[in-house]
Amino acid sequence: MAATRDIVASYRNPAAVVRRLLGQCPREDRNLVYLMVACLIFFVAQTPRLAREAHVNGTELDMLLGATLLAWLFIAPLIFYMLAAGTQIILKVMRGRPSGYSTRLALFWALLASSPLVLLHGLTAGFVGEGIELRIVGLVWLCVFLWFWISGLLVAYRTRS
To answer: From the CA atom positions of the chain, what is the Rg in Å?
Structure first.
């Protein structure tokens, strides 16, 4: 199934999607692609806000875009790998049986599957700016992301290493 269909299916039953992805042969390259595409989408989502900020403050947009690109495509993946490793340790302390692969898949898939809402958040930040609308969209994204991640972690918790 295509990743876009899996993303749509995640909004109906995220645990089933993660269970199906874990049922396929373990491929770390697929995990890395999920993470890098999610980080790329997060970067693209920032561009309307950065353009607005550059226009309002009179700063160079190129500088803001370069720094954001560095942060999302080089630094954020390292942070997400560390977060997945910490999550695996916590699940093992809680007597779970997750593999590193399954905890990484749960996190990276949650990031990718919730990315359409990140794009909406970026558009809201760019066109509306600070306000209650931006906070509502951010809260909706956070709730959906946590729902996807926790659902994936529950599947990973029960999965044998």
So the answer is: 17
- For 48-81, how does the pLDDT look when each residue is reduced to its tens digit (9 = 90+)? 999 998 988 888 889 989 999 999 999 999 999 9
Q: Are 114 and 146 in contact (CB under 8 A)?
A: no
| CA 12/CA 2 separation, integer angstroms | 16
Cα separation, 53 vs 107, whole angstroms: 30
How many helices and strands, by DSSP H and E, does the chain display? 8, 0
pTM, two decimals, is 0.89
Cα gap 48→53, rounded to integer Å: 9
Distance between CA 40 and CA 46 in Å, rounded?
A: 10
According to DSSP, residue 24 is labeled S
Look up residue 87 and give its amino acid.
T
Confirm if 65 and 53 have CB atoms less than 8 A apart.
Answer: no
| Closest to 34 in 3D by CA, of 121, 101, 113 | 113
